[in-house]
Please model this.
Amino acid sequence: MMTLEEAGALLDTLAEELPPEFYRELNGGVLLAAETKTHPEARPGDPLYIMGEYRSGGTLGRQIILYYGSFARVLGDSPPAVWEKDLRATLRHEFTHHVESLAGAKGLIVKDERFMAGYRTRGRTSERER
Model:
């Protein structure tokens, strides 16, 4: 399994791939937190890990946080290339939230809400389907 330190070094490298303009007003930077974070609506036996989040406003300003513990739970002993792919995808997802926030757009928020709507209904059957 990739260690927290290895994931942090990889995240630094991935963050350097992005143009400096993306960092405008991201005064809280990009952080890798050690914790595992689950979505408040996660169901027992059907975990829904939060891999990263974009925060704006408040005393900490705008920041991107990725959760190492969530990656460790989902990816476990996956090869480094898989960690790299998923860290990159999550970082770019959260940067999209940041850039959209600066532009006043909500396209990715809508997409995330559709994902959650699917999660809420997944696995449930109507009486007619039983």
About this structure: The longest strand covers residues 29-33. Helices lie at 4-16, 68-75, 80-103, 107-121.
